[in-house]
Structures are given as structure tokens and as C-alpha cells.
Amino acid sequence: MKKSLSLTFIICIVSISYGQSVIGKWSGTLDIQGQKLAIAFNVEENGDALIATLDSPDQGAFGIPTDTCIFDAHQLKITAKQLQLTFEGRLTKDGDKINGNFNQGPMSFPLV
User: Fold this and answer.
1) According to the model, what pLDDT value does residue 44 have?
2) 3-state secondary structure 18-57
3) Separation of CA 61 from chain center
4) b/e 32-63 (16+ beta carbons within 10 angstroms → b)
5) Shortest CA distance to 87 belongs to which of 72, 103, 98?
6) Is there a domain that residue 98 lies in?
7) Domain with 78 in it
8) Mean pLDDT throughout 4-29?
């Protein structure tokens, strides 16, 4: 009984630590010199890799492809080279928010 309980505990801990996912739609707002701009990243699985598209609904732009989408150790990084865009953020412990910075060219803004 003691061995199976210990094994169950270890399995639960492993499941919790690996259970967080960034799959789905992540929306936020940029504040650019007082101008609010809605931004969303749509993250999906593609085999063993992640892919993401970018939406900017206030600009009427949807499904903009990105080049890379990497999620490792609670850190998410998305790049779109053609737009000179990088987003780097960290998934919160409860897994319901990603706090990060939206960088485009030389400019950087918090995305909340």
C-alpha cells in the first residue's frame, strides 16, 4: 500500500507540473501612447510543435502567420520576422494569464 501511494503521489506531481498548456486564444490590450489596441495570439498544436497566428481586431487583421512559437518552462515566445515582432511572456502559476512584452522594431509595450 505504501509503495502504490508513493507512486500515485509522484504521478500526480508530474501531471501537475506538466499539465499547463498555452493551447488556445490569448487576448490582451496594448497601450500605445494612450491608444488601446486589442491583440490576440491563437496557439495550436501541429504535430510535436506549436504554431501561432496573430489577430489585431482593431486594425481588421486576423490570422497573421508567425514564424516561431515556443513554450518552455512556463515561458512563451512568438516571433514574426516580417513584422519585426516578438512577444515574450510567462504563464502565471494558475495558468489563466500570460504576462509579457510585445516588441515591434525598436518599440516595446507590456501586453495585458
Assistant:
1) 98
2) HCCCCCEEEEEEEEECCEEEEEEEEEEEECCEEEEEEEEH
3) 19
4) eeeeebebebbbeeeeeebbbbbbeeeeeeee
5) 103
6) yes
7) 22-111
8) 61
The span from the CA of 14 to the CA of 17, in Å, is 5
pLDDT at 1: 43
Decide if 69 contacts 43 (C-beta within 8 A).
yes
How far, in Å, CA of 45 to CA of 54, rounded? 15
The mean pLDDT value of the chain amounts to: 86
Q: Domain tally for the chain?
A: 1
What's residue 10's pLDDT?
38
Q: How many angstroms separate the CA atoms of 99 and 76, rounded? A: 10
The whole-number pLDDT of residue 19 equals 55
Task: Return left, alpha or beta for 82; rule: phi > 0 is left, psi -120 to 50 is alpha, else beta.
Answer: alpha
Please name the residue that has the C-alpha cell 481586431. 57
The pLDDT of residue 32 is above 50? yes
> Which pLDDT belongs to residue 38?
97
